Amino acid sequence: MNERRRSDAPAPSHPLRWLPEFLEISHRRLHQGNPWTNLALPMMVGVNCGIGAIVFFVACQAVFRFSLDGIAGYHPHSPGGEPSLFGETTAALRPWLLLIIPSVGGILSGFLVYTLAPEAEGHGTDAAIDAYHHRQGQIRPRVPLVKIAASALTLGTGGSGGREGPIAQIGAGFGSFLGGLLRMRPNERRVLMAAGMGAGVAAIFRAPLAGAIFAAEVLYRSPDFESEVIIPAGLASVIAYCTFGLAFGWAPLFALPPELLNVLSFNQPLHLVSYTFLALFLVVLAML
């Protein structure tokens, strides 16, 4: 009986059992499709999303300059790497207007959304995820334009929110529009839509690698991510970041103090050796 139990026990799995399957999947994905779909279209999405991020950023700055800054006299500090496009006024602070201006901005934003594009309501990322999974990647062309205007009104007048959700839906809308314009299949359109999500985030936050990973992982609640999205999203994110950088410079969004900048800056190629050992160690740790 003991011998039978020992023979029925599963054999210990080899720690590198995943390597052959990984190589096979990588080879198949690198050789499927065509250069137009895999390279050119994500780059076009990146350019469009970079321009969309520029328009969104300028719109937010303009609304803030002529509402909270110019009328209410509210002058907050912006991140160190973010330019102030319209300067700062000398208007005196009127605290009571900080109760009125956000309310007016919210009313105008809500009217615009519910009149022209109700799907542009809310955070933005949730609507993009819904379009990816349940609408075959289809987003009406007017949605990114309405989202730019409505979000600029909300954020520029001091409404509660951030840029991540709006720019994700704006970028997704541009990707979906390009896929629909070229009459692409639903699966290809969904990939372009996801790449647009990452490209928008990469541009507005000046973080191309983070944008690519964001596009691949935000589509799921589990630890998995959409692996077919990662390469198109990477290309689109880099191009969008470069497009945005051409207009507003290449400084990081959040500047570091000089004492930390000297420590954390990369200026020695030999550091790549230690980074390589760190990466290998993390791979083994992830396997375990």
What is the gist of this entry?
The chain is mainly alpha-helical and 288 residues long. Helix content is 67%, strand content 0%.
The number of helical segments is: 12
- Helical/strand content category: mainly alpha
Give the strand content: under 5%
Main sheet record: none
- The radius of gyration is 23 Å
Helix coverage percent: 55-70%
Catalogue the unreliable spans.
1-7
Return the average pLDDT rounded to an integer: 83
Query: What is the string of helix and strand elements?
Result: HHHHHHHHHHHH
Distance between the termini: 33 Å
Beta strands, count: 0
Task: Report the principal-axis shape.
Answer: globular
Walkthrough of the structure:
By secondary structure, this protein is mainly α. It has 12 helices and no strands. It has helices spanning about 1-10, 20-30, 35-70, 95-115, 125-135, 140-155, 165-180, 185-205, 210-215, 225-250, 260-265, 270-285. Helix 3 crosses helix 8 (about 185-205), helix 5 runs antiparallel to helix 8 (about 185-205) and helix 7 runs antiparallel to helix 8. The radius of gyration is 23 Å and the shape is globular. The two termini are about 35 Å apart. The model is unreliable at about 1-5 (pLDDT under 50).
